[in-house]
Specification:
Blueprint (H helix, E strand, L loop, with lengths): L7 H21 L6 H8 L3 H7 L3 H23 L2 H5 L2 H18 L1 H8 L6 H24 L5 H27 L3 H24 L2
Length: 205
């Protein structure tokens, strides 16, 4: 950010900018949306955006920081003694469910995480989000399958999440096309695939 708001009015203005940008990024995509459109949709002068954000990329980075903080808090809330006693398959479902639920509530997050074209400005943001989720699944594997070495944990978690993300991306496309039943079924299959793959991986130890 160009500067952080110190007063309540400034904080409200930044929240409005971010909420409006998130909606436009979800509806039109990051590449298509412009700062002028964000200002118009928010009902504020374009100068109000540049007061806090030098460009659209800075808005994206602010949204990304919020997504990462929200996801970290959601995963931390999941780490209870009860969760530690869950069967491995159920634990995987719960963890992936956190990401899917958050993505459903923040479609711009889903577009960044799952639909970013390679080499685009969103690709680095998508990689950052993937790395955060990957670290959580690696930690789960470390706790539940201590016989796996660091390389194996990284490999299995990467393959499993990459495959699940591909299905989730197709689910989003299906819902955008009005194929809601297919989209819902694909969401369920992404979880089933990740559970089956990681369960099989640790059974081979």
């Amino acid at each position: 950010m160009r500067r952080s708001p110190q007063r309540a009015r400034g904080q409200q203005r930044v929240s409005l900018i971010l909420e409006t940008a998130e909606q436009l990024f979800a509806d039109r995509g990051y590449e298509a949306a412009t700062t002028n459109e964000i200002a118009a949709a928010a009902g504020i002068p374009i100068g109000s955006i540049y007061q806090f954000f030098p460009n659209k990329e800075a808005i994206l980075h602010a949204l990304l920081a919020g997504y990462r903080a929200d996801l970290a808090a959601a995963y931390d809330a999941l780490a209870t003694p009860e969760f530690a006693r869950l069967p491995f398959a159920v634990a995987i479902e719960r963890m992936l469910g956190v990401t899917i639920e958050y993505g459903g509530a923040h479609m711009a997050f889903s577009r960044i995480a799952l639909l970013s074209a390679p080499g685009s400005q969103l690709a680095a943001a998508a990689d950052t989000l993937f790395a955060d989720v990957l670290a959580r699944f690696e930690a789960l594997l470390a706790a539940r399958a201590p016989g796996l070495g660091p390389h194996q944990r990284r490999l299995y978690a990467t393959v499993g999440l990459t495959a699940a993300n591909a299905i989730l991306a197709r689910a989003i496309s299906a819902k955008h096309a009005g194929e809601y039943t297919l989209g819902h079924d694909l969401l369920e299959q992404s979880s089933a695939l990740l559970v089956a793959y990681l369960t099989l991986a640790i059974e081979q130890i």
